[in-house]
Every structure is written in C-alpha cells, then in structure tokens.
Amino acid sequence: MTGSYQTRDAKAPPSLMDAFAAVARSAPHAVAVADEKERLTYGELADRVRQVADVLSRHGAGPGTVVAVRMAARAELIVVLLGILAARAAYLPLNDPAVPEREAFILADARPAALVEDADEPGEGMSLTATTRLRTPVGGPAAAVPDDTAYVIYTSGTTGRPKGTTVTHGNVLALFDAAGPFFGFGPDDRWLLFHGIAFDFSVWEMWGALLRGGSLYVPDRTRLLDPEDCARLIRQEAVTVLNQTPTAFGVLAPELMREPGAHTLRHIVFGGERLHPPALDPWTRVHGFDRPALTNMYGITETTVHATFHRIGADDVASSRSVIGRTLPGFRARIVDERDRDTDAGELLLAGPQVTAGYLNRPELTAERYVTARGLVYYRTGDLVRRDADGTLSHTGRRDDQVKVRGYRLELAEVESALLDLPGVTGAVATTFTLAGAETLGCVCTAADGTAGDTAAVRGRLRARLPEYMVPDRMLWLAELPSTANGKADRRQARTLLERRGRGWPSGPGGAADQQTSKGVR
Q1: Same domain flag for 464 and 484
Q2: C-alpha 39: how far from its chain's center?
Q3: DSSP line for 173-221
Q4: CA end-to-end distance (rounded Å), the chain
Q5: Backbone dihedral region of 304: left (phi > 0), alpha (psi from -120 to 50 degrees) or beta?
Q6: Which of 169, 186, 368, 394 is the most buried (most CB within 10 A)?
C-alpha cells in the first residue's frame, strides 16, 4: 500500500522514526498532521521533526534520556513528540490540565533532560519554547533502535504514588504488526487525536495514522468538551477512525446520531474501560454493525495500549457480557486463581512483544507485577476475565474493585452490569462511600430520558437479580457520569459526590435519592 508501513521482517525499519521516514519518502505530499490553523504534509513534517531533534540533541537529549512535554494540542505538538523520538530520547507527557503536586513528583522521579512547553519564557530548569526556539539545524541525531524507550506514561497506583511505565519503539511496532490486519488502516484514513498524550490511547491514534500514511487531525481540546461541536468536527474533517472510551461515547453518540448519514466513520474502536454492549443498542439500530465497524479492545499501558480484539455484533448487544475477544497475535495469555493455578475464570496475565520492560525507578513494583513463568515474562494485569466455551475472553471486573460491605465481598462491576441491564438506565458507576461513619454501597447513574430515575423502582428490580447486600443503599442521578480527563468513568469522583450529598441523606438503607439538574447535583 503506497505510503504505508504494514509488516516487519528482516529488512523492516528498526524504530518508529525509521518507519515514519519510509512513509514520508513514499508520500511526501500527503497531509500528515493538521489543526485549525495549519496542515503539514509528510515532507514538511519530516523537515520540522529533524529541526526539533537537532536542537534537542544539543540540549542533552539522546539515548537513555527523557524529555518532558507540556503543550497545548495542535499540530506542533506532534512535531515535538516525533522530534524527541528522532533524537533517540523518550517523551514524557505531562497532564493537561496539570495537577501541581502530581507533576512535581513526576518531574522529580523521571528527571527529564529538557522540558518543552508553550510558554514564551523558560520555566524552572531546562525549558524550550516549541514555537520559537526549535529551529536551528545542527548535526543529526543517532539512529534509534527497537529497544530505545519511546515514551514514559505515569499512571496512578493503588498506593496513590504514580508509576512510570517505559514503552519502547519495538513495543509500539509490535502493536501495529498485530492489530493492523484486523482493520486495514491506510492512507485514506483520517484520524482524530481525541485523547490527551498522557493517555496512551493517543499512541494508537497518532501512530495508527502516521505508520499507515493517513492523516491525523489535532483539535483544540475545548471542542471535544462540547458533544455537539465534537460531532460537527468529526463530520467537517471527514474522520474515518474514531477511538472512544465507552463513557465518552455515551455522551457523543446522541449528537452523531442526529445526522447519521453525514459522517464518514469507518471504524469506532472502544478501549480504556469496561464496555457494556447493550448501551450500544440505540446506535446500532441506526447504523448497524458494519459502517462503521464497532470493535472492543482491551489493554493497559503496560501491554502497549491494546492486547485483545473483538468485533461487536448483534449477539453482543443482546447480552450483558463484556466480551474482549481473543488476544492479538504474539500474546500468550494465562488466567490464574488467587493461588496462581491455571483456571478459566480469574486474573489475566499477558506475555509477548507488546509487554513493556517495567516501571521507571520502581524495581520492587516491577518484580511484583512482571513475573517469569514457563520461560516467559508475564504482566499481572489485575483484571478479572472468564474464558468462554468458544475460547473468547469476557472481562468481569478488577481484582482491586472487589470491596467488602457489611462483611460481604462483592464485585463493583457486577453491580454496574446489573444496573445497566435495567430499562432506562444508561450509565452507572458503583462505589463504596462513608455514610454516618459506615462503609456504604452507592451508585451514580444516568437515565435515558435525561431525568432522574425512580430509585425505589430501580432498587426493587435489582433485588430480583442480586442478593440484598449488592443492592446500592444510595443512588445519585446526574445528567452525565463523573469522568476523568481521559474520558473514563471516575469512581473516585463518584465516591466524593456520594459522600458530599450523603450529609443530607437519612441513615439506613434506601434513603431518599437526589434529583438531577442540568449541572449535576442540586
């Protein structure tokens, strides 16, 4: 396919930047990256990337170093990220918006050689202004190799201390080697950088376009916050590949369905959190399952974005099972019980070329989560799955989402699934929270008609499906589910909302629930 890097063999490019260079040489005049103000062809992008790499090399960027990035989303951001890779350094995305305490920890832990930001003046330490300083070409950087770290992404740990996962060029190339045949991405595809670079879904979006000769559109982040404007952008830019967390799609889908024939979507890929397929029923009644194709992919940062693939069909939407399908080629999967014995329902362990080497400066945590068995290094995902009779995997919850309420141990995902199976309930985040000094089961929900649900009726229906200890004691109805900056349902924020509102609830199970307002809790 012209302008497309498809598969790797003995002569294949050894790094992401070699692969990109091959695409740029074969299709120099094709549009590679665009935003509201400029469009860069592959040739223009390659030239600007070399300039960035040269300047960064002069400032100490190179093999074994990290360059932090704090920039607004625009085409120049992609120039800088590729320039860092071309200098054989790894990029370290800082959250947008920044959380000062978390960012300070990350910078102290990663010790970047440089910080690239939009500011006109240098900040504390090494700081380069992307728009004015990255221009003077000097000697070229060294060639990258597959084992070079491409990026370091910090994710939250169960202890509250962020941990940096180091992901190599080889890990990312392995992802597209494995997933590419299922999609047929090519130079005619137009991708939207929907996610911030601190969320590794952005890696899939960026390289899905640039390794295949496609075009990547980088929107102003404010446009993505307005579902109506975001849907308009998808139509205007003729986006063909859209990547979504289920929570984000639940908000965007109604706006896209207002003009079902106006978009050019070819693929919608879900990831980042557990999908409840029946929630897609309104969409599939309008669009069917083929144009666009709907795909559920499971994965985590430590296994390089995506590890499984499942094409969604009518049987899925009619079932409450969250099928994540089969592992991508190259993966070896084990399912183990609490004593690490093989089973068909338990924790998922993954080995293969997409599994990363470990955590930056965290040898003890690396040894705990990356374990050797049968001559392979497996990553302990913490995700609970079930192997179905046909060999496919279904996601059933998180090991760390098991909670104990009044002496009973339960899975929050099971409570959420039961809620979402009820008519009229379109979203649910279950969590425990403190009410009158006791740990209480609660849930934040959304309803189909945009109004508050009937809490008493919902709890009554749940009793027909769940034991009493799994029926939420309190329910809070909102216009939208609380979500993180990455578009995932935010269990921590749900807990905070329930505790805040809980001060006005009477004690005892089944106290009065809040009514929805246009901005959430009244």
Answers
A1: yes
A2: 26
A3: HHHHHHHHHHH---TT-EEE--S-TTSTHHHHHHHHHHTTT-EEE---H
A4: 56
A5: left
A6: 169
**378, 512: one domain:** no
Do residues 364 and 420 both lie within one domain?
Answer: no
pLDDT tens digits for 452-499? 678 888 989 998 888 787 899 899 999 889 988 777 888 889 989 998
Beta carbons of 326 and 308 less than 8 angstroms apart = yes
Cα separation, 70 vs 96, whole angstroms: 8
Element (H, E) at 517: strand 516-517
**Could you tell me if residue 152 is inside a domain?**
yes
Which of 89-98, 304-313, 355-364 is the least confident region? 89-98
Return the SS3 of 138: coil
Q: What is the CATH number of the domain that holds 79?
A: 3.40.50.12780
* Count: domains in the chain: 3
What are the distances in angstroms from CA 308 to CA 131, 189, 327, 394, 404? Answer: 39, 22, 4, 11, 30
Residue 186: φ, ψ to 5°: -155, -170
The predicted model scores a pTM of 0.81
| In a domain? residue 249 | no
Are 341 and 487 contained in the same domain?
Answer: no
Domain assignment of residue 231, yes or no: no
Question: Domain for residue 105, yes or no?
Answer: yes
Length of the chain: 522
Residues spanned by the domain of 366? 324-398
Q: What mean pLDDT comes out for the span 169-173?
A: 97
Give the integer Cα–Cα distance in Å for 43 and 21: 9
Cα–Cα distance, 166 to 379 (Å, whole number)? 14
